[in-house]
Backbone:
């Protein structure tokens, strides 16, 4: 029922499509269309299976492989990343591959042993379980082959070169490069959480795939930008042609691989354009009135801006829009001498992501706890590493016409500060 997709001669996509996934990483990342768990089968004198799938997609994965070759013929299974969406099916697969070596780096082996020592007893029958426990760690039966950067795996007519990529985005992450063919198996780099019946970038709208590419980077890889930049430079110094990038999620790159790499360079360097994201929440619409006046002030200076009320906006999408925006304005009503929980949640995400080369501003309304909300937001921005472009603004109760004029002026001045920022190319659509 599940068919593989031929990429080129003796190279197949054999992954799984998760059409129903709607969030990732503990509900922090919205996946509106689902995602894919991409796996690849390379058939040569030796047969290699590259990357795994989430545990509950084993049957789909196994079925696609079986349409190409008897899985018992597989010589190597490469685990480039131990996160459960890639490794969850490994125990069942290794049972089905009696002669396969499990190829990973030392960090990968350590993580696999930690993840699966007791957890994977569930794959055994009740009768087998006691025997497994009595004999010790069943994973000792897995035939590990440990590799490091520069090591190669000779398959016959082809060879794979391994490139460790620690913290892109787990300590064990690794790339594989197919020598002579310009194909990079990139695991979580350059991917997207996007489910589709298509497999490649040139089969969908370019704007669509770049938008999903941006969302993935912003929500998952952003805090690792300095590491990613070093890895990109390392790949460049290796002087290896890359004409195809086979990702572990979403669509792979065969037409726009150069643009995918360049986008990572832009984001890792913190390049930004002159635009502003305003994220806020309000109790009785005083803060919202302030936000709207601030927005008008920004627009008056010709700077594009977009307003997001946090309870009804998708945080993952806001973060994507912030990726190449120079300015962030954060607003909240005051409650319990603090900011609203919705704003606090968003601020928590920003503190973890630590966006590069941004400027911020804060605004609030209050009843009797003057400046407590703006002070809380200022502290959050400081922790996120984002400097304040202007002194914060706060209004007691409902903003008067004069105070709304002050908000307008606050937005206009913030726009002038944004104009001072460095811009590259055009912004992603607001």
Residues:
């Amino acid at each position: 029922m599940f068919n593989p997709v031929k990429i080129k001669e003796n190279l197949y996509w054999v992954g799984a499509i998760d059409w129903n996934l709607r969030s990732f990483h503990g509900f922090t990342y919205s996946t509106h269309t689902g995602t894919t768990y991409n796996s690849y089968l390379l058939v040569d004198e030796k047969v290699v299976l590259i990357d795994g799938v989430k545990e509950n997609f084993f049957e789909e994965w196994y079925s696609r492989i079986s349409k190409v070759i008897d899985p018992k013929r597989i010589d190597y299974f490469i685990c480039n990343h131990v996160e459960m969406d890639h490794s969850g099916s490994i125990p069942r697969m290794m049972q089905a591959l009696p002669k396969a070596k499990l190829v990973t780096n030392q960090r990968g082996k350590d993580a696999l042993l930690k993840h699966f020592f007791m957890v994977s007893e569930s794959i055994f029958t009740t009768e087998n379980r006691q025997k497994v426990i009595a004999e010790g760690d069943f994973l000792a039966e897995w035939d590990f082959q440990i590799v490091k950067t520069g090591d190669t795996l000779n398959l016959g007519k082809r060879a794979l070169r391994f490139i460790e990529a620690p913290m892109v985005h787990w300590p064990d992450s690794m790339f594989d490069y197919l020598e002579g063919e310009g194909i990079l198996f990139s695991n979580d780099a350059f991917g997207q959480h996007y489910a589709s019946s298509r497999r490649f970038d040139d089969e969908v709208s370019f704007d669509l795939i770049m938008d999903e590419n941006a969302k993935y980077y912003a929500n998952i890889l952003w805090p690792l930008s300095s590491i990613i930049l070093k890895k990109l430079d390392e790949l460049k110094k290796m002087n290896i042609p890359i004409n195809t990038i086979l990702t572990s999620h979403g669509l792979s790159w065969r037409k726009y691989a150069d643009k995918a790499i360049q986008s990572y360079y832009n984001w890792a360097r913190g390049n930004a354009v002159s635009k502003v994201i305003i994220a806020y929440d309000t109790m009785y619409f005083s803060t919202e009135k302030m936000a709207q006046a601030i927005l008008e002030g920004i627009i008056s200076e010709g700077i594009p801006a977009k307003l997001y009320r946090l309870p009804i906006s998708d945080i993952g999408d806001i973060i994507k829009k912030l990726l190449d925006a120079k300015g962030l304005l954060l607003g909240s009503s005051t409650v319990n001498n603090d900011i609203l929980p919705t704003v606090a949640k968003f601020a928590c995400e920003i503190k973890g992501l630590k966006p590069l080369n941004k400027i911020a501003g804060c605004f609030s309304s209050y009843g009797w706890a003057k400046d407590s909300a703006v002070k809380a937001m200022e502290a959050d921005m400081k922790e996120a590493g984002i400097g304040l472009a202007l002194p914060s603004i706060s209004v007691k109760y409902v903003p008067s016409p004069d105070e709304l004029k002050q908000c307008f002026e606050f937005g206009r001045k913030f726009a002038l500060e944004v104009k001072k920022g460095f811009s590259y190319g055009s912004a992603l659509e607001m």
Notes: The CA atoms of residues 168 and 335 lie 39 Å apart.
